[in-house]
Amino acid sequence: MISMRDASVVYDNGVRALNKVSMQIGEGEFAFLVGASGSGKSTIIKLLTAEIRPCEGRVLVNNFNIGKLKKRDVPHLRRTLGVVFQDFRLIPNKTVYENIAFAMRAVGASTRAIQKRVPYVMDLVGLTGKGDRKPLELSGGEQQRVAIARALVNNPRLIIADEPTGNLDPERSLELMTLFEKINELGTTVLIVTHEKELVDQFGKRVIVIDKGEIISDQMGGYYTYEDSVE
Amino acid sequence: MKIRLSSIAYFWKEGIHNIFLHGFMSFAAVSVIVVCLLITGSVTLISYSVDLNILKLQQESEIAIYIDENVPTETARGLQSTIEAIPNVADAEFESGGDALEDFRVSLGENAVLLDGYSAENSPLRDGYYITMKDVALVDETIDALEEIDGVANIVVKEEVINKLLQVQRVFRTVAATLIVALGLISVFIISNTVKLAMFARRDEISIQKMVGATNSFIRWPFIIEGMLLGLLASLIAFGLEWWIYSELTALLSSELSSFTMAAFEDVKFLVLGCFAGSSVLVGVCGSALTIRRFMDV
């Protein structure tokens, strides 16, 4: 699923964002990646989605070797992933239905398949009856559910969520994490990048802590114990 | 890559939908293309008309040839076919010595008495031809060919006038071509910036498409269709406006400057429509396709 071995990333300005990072996340796992701002969390996400390439080491995501991935194969990698962002990244002038269907269109799905799959996913994330609404007519929690539905609609093997609860209140955050847990129970691997201690501790899942571009802790059923390093 | 029919329908639906969705940017793009086409088109059409008038002036420049007085008038008249056989001769008009005398007499008015005693039979003026050329630039070759004809006594050509006209034509064509190319380039620059602005406003949409695994061609097609339709719409509007502006200008010039003849728009309307549609669709499509590349590197 995800296999990083001694992966390093150095940006053009000379900043070493990741330094020989190694980690494995297997099929069906649920893991939190935690760390302070600037610790390298975002760089890992960019690496996993092939926005950037490692300058050293090996990164495998769903059997795609990121370091050797050709540009034309990047869309094929991304079709095996579902990515959820803190700022939802929804298209404001499309309806909820269109925002979700759009991800299926992008991979060349037929209209029939879209008409069958989108309502199912909307039901899964609790958005039934809201298909005709525009994103800005929804609450933050609902918008994030749309983003999750969009990430799920192509039935990805791996969901990566980058601070998915960053713009939500604690109650909505808990609901959302529960939703991710439900998705994971259905067989999808979930990697959540966050720095929300209470949430991480509440779920008792695998916690990987990153600091200054290095993995400093990786525990199953762990807690967010490195709070001093978190802003 | 195999493209589904449903995807093609989606590209068109999205392309058309986006035109209305981003109404202001569509309006801006169409307006810019229309203005650029109108300016470039008007300058081109006016240049074409001016060039036609220069050509007309050139064609009106004549070579006068005079036939030896020992050659009988009927023989001189018979030279017409020989003269017209010269490749660059457009037209040769015969004037007998008698006719020339009568014209001269008329032009003298009260002083015509000076010519008393002369008639067609003893006209002191020679028979001659007034020749217009197809291409005045070939005046020297034409004179050489005329000199070869037996009986030609004298050739009079206003070379200075012809050379001046040729010079004017050369300068005008250079200026017009430079102006048209410059306007064309400025238009492409303005249009591509407008397209860039439209793309910039939609960069988030493009990055989301990239993130969910859309291929570059999937993202590009609706933009290309949108660019093509906007270009086509702009060209039709510009064509209608150009026709109206040109007709008004023609009417104005024909009343103010009657000797200046504007080319009839009807004669060139399909060419204008073709050029407008071709260039604006090309600019719309290429502008979209090239500009979108900048936003797809995600």
What does this structure look like?
The complex is a heterodimer of chains A (231) and B (298). Chain A is globular. In chain A, strand 1 and strand 2 form a beta hairpin. Chain A has 7 helices and 10 strands. Chain A is an alpha/beta fold and 231 residues long. By secondary structure, chain B is an alpha+beta fold. In chain B, 70% of the residues lie in helices and 8% in strands. Chain B has 10 helices and 4 strands. Chain B has helices at 5-21, 23-60, 73-77, 80-84, 97-108, 139-147, 159-200, 203-211, 216-256, 265-295; strands at 62-67, 89-95, 128-133, 152-157. Chain B has a 4-stranded antiparallel sheet with strand order 2-3-1-4. Chain A binds chain B through residues 49, 51, 72, 75-79, 81, 83, 89-91, 93, 102-103, 105-108, 110-111, 150, 154, and chain B through 3-4, 6-7, 10, 21, 204-205, 207-216, 218, 298.
Put the structure in a nutshell.
With 231 residues, chain A is α/β, with parallel strands linked by helices. Chain A has helices spanning 41-48, 74-78, 96-106, 111-124, 140-152, 170-185, 197-203; strands at 2-10, 16-25, 30-34, 56-61, 64-65, 81-85, 158-162, 189-194, 206-211, 214-219.
Characteristic terms for this protein:
heterodimer, A: 231 residues, alpha/beta, 6-stranded mixed sheet, 4-stranded antiparallel sheet, 10 strands, disordered C terminus, B: 298 residues, alpha+beta, Alpha-Beta Plaits, 10 helices, 4 strands
Going across the biggest sheet of chain B, name each strand in turn.
Answer: 2-3-1-4
Question: Please, how many helices of chain A?
Answer: 7
Number-wise, the strands of chain A total 10
Q: In what range is the share of β-strand residues of chain B?
A: 5-15%
Spans of chain A with pLDDT under 50 lasting ≥5 residues? Answer: 227-231
Q: Report the total helices of chain B.
A: 10
Whole-number mean pLDDT of chain B:
84
**Biggest sheet of chain A: strands, sense, closure?**
6 strands, mixed
Secondary-structure class of chain A:
alpha/beta
Helix amount of chain B, in percent? over 70%
Spatial strand order of the main sheet of chain A: 6-7-8-3-9-10
Q: Which stretches of chain B are poorly predicted, pLDDT < 50 over at least 5 residues?
A: none
Name the assembly state: heterodimer
* Share of residues in helices of chain A: 25-40%
Average pLDDT over all residues of chain A: 89
Query: Helices and strands of chain B, in N-to-C order?
Result: HHEHHEHEHEHHHH
Radius of gyration of chain B: 31 Å
Q: N-to-C terminal Cα separation of chain A, in Å?
A: 30 Å
Q: Provide the number of structural domains of chain B.
A: 2
